[in-house]
């Protein structure tokens, strides 16, 4: 059931690039600690609504490209954010503490939630002024399960909130879902602890010069590199730099934090 006053929002459809010989694999890296050095700050103000129902099915997929949020560890603790917060995919994976405030009837007093950014809340041209997510408005459009933990009723509509960036506590380390063929590799990076967001990704094979090759963000947390026939048959390692500048590399790179299980194409 939608909150009253909430805009009409279509379910997000996850884009699926069509490439021959695509394969999917999930690999893990040693855990990134949820460090207090991760981006944290003071409280800011926004508004919040929810979309979908208590099952959370409508929140699956989304503009960050995670897909099934349950199998990938995010579950119902997810939110879409307006463009000013989404920042052209750069906030994907970031974690926020959110609490309702300044509304004695709509707020569940003393409660707060932690949510991960998994999608964009777009403006709605059919609504006056573009709706709740029209820039420069700051808005959280979350799962109903999270909304009802800070609101007294699902009928409270758009409620005033305070929010702040907090470290992401993720178990099991960074994970990768890989698709590819001899000319193209696409990697979904997820389950990132600490700052949660990803600033850059590089890849290298287990043979050859050993140089890291930078990947580019295709969309969300999907990173790609093209013209890669020389990487076929090699074990791949990834270097992930998070938004706070911390670098996580694979064991054979001689970097700071070892520990990935490499994957062959």
Notable characteristics:
disordered N terminus; 16 strands; 34% strand; single chain; 265 residues
Structure description:
There is one protein chain. 4% of the residues lie in helices and 34% in strands. The chain has 265 residues and is mostly beta strands. The strands form three sheets. A six-stranded mixed barrel has the order 2-6-3-5-4-7. A hairpin with a 2-residue loop joins β12 (216-219) and β13. The longest helix has 7 residues, at 144-150. It comes from Zingiber officinale. Causes loosening and extension of plant cell walls by disrupting non-covalent bonding between cellulose microfibrils and matrix glucans. No enzymatic activity has been found. Residues 1-33 form the signal peptide. This is Expansin.
Oligomer: single chain
The residue ranges in which pLDDT falls below 50 over 5 or more consecutive positions are 1-39, 251-265
Q: Walk across the major sheet and give the strand order.
A: 2-6-3-5-4-7
Overall mean pLDDT:
81
Could you describe the largest sheet, including whether it forms a barrel?
Answer: 6 strands, mixed, barrel
How many angstroms separate the termini?
A: 44 Å
Q: Specify the structural class.
A: mainly beta
Please write the string of helix (H) and strand (E) elements.
Answer: EEEHEEEHEEEEEEEEEE
How many E-type strands?
16
Helix proportion range: under 10%
Question: What would you report as the Rg, rounded to the nearest angstrom?
Answer: 19 Å
Domain Expansin-like EG45: 61-173
Membrane topology: Peripheral membrane protein
Subcellular location: Secreted, Cell wall; Membrane
Family: Belongs to the expansin family. Expansin A subfamily.
